[in-house]
């Protein structure tokens, strides 16, 4: 298996055509076809299905695609690690952020990295939490923000903050509480929650079990923050979330948020990287920027209901490979 075969495979997958892919990678179509045939022979599976117009990935091709992409990204990281200017982080860092964290972190992080690391290209990927895990595992992501659910041992993780979950309701809902509400009463309300295993759903259900309470009264499973927001504004129910994804609506008075008390629900936000894929200097530099930025956002109140776990946090390194 050769790197050029992986590049050709990815080009064909991207363009859906041998001729367009050949033009994109500057080789003759016959040479590209020959290299793909050798790759398919080595893998023992056809990677593309030929169609009347173009091609599409087979099941084997779809399974192979993220691995090919991850390998080429790691090769580029290795090249950058030996060619970068001394003492300056250079290269591309692909950073995964859950939908419910994006409002708090995405724009401040882009600004902070641009200011502190001018030669680092930061690519943000916004996904459901459950989709970020396999991408981080295979190397499609260099870093990701994940929530500590007790199953992150495969990654190198650093705690960033604890984020309180509030009951968020339409402002004019007749059953919306005006002050703190107990967990039992909150779980009885018609709730709109992300589907398992995404977001806060495992936290809410675990809290109910630990308190010996009935399962939450979920009237809709919605894992999209934008659709969940629309559903709340339409008066279809309540949700249990940190306030940052709904910050604008809360500020405008369209939604209201009250704490869960005395139980207090929260989720721990972690910065994670692979244990087995070496981290580039650019990745480590972005990780340090994230740590500093999260501290600033919590201290000045920009990250509402965010609480730093410790005053002095250890640096997010050493991220060499393990095992």
Automatic annotation (TrEMBL):
InterPro entries registered for this protein in UniProt: LysR_HTH_N, LysR_subst-bd, WH-like_DNA-bd_sf, WH_DNA-bd_sf
Q: Which PROSITE patterns match?
A: HTH_LYSR (PS50931)
Database matches in Gene3D superfamilies:
3.40.190.290, Winged helix-like DNA-binding domain superfamily/Winged helix DNA-binding domain
SUPFAM superfamilies named in the record: Periplasmic binding protein-like II, Winged helix' DNA-binding domain
Q: Where is the HTH lysR-type domain?
A: 1-58
Pfam families membership? HTH_1 (PF00126), LysR_substrate (PF03466)
Which family is annotated?
Belongs to the LysR transcriptional regulatory family.
Full protein name: LysR substrate-binding domain-containing protein
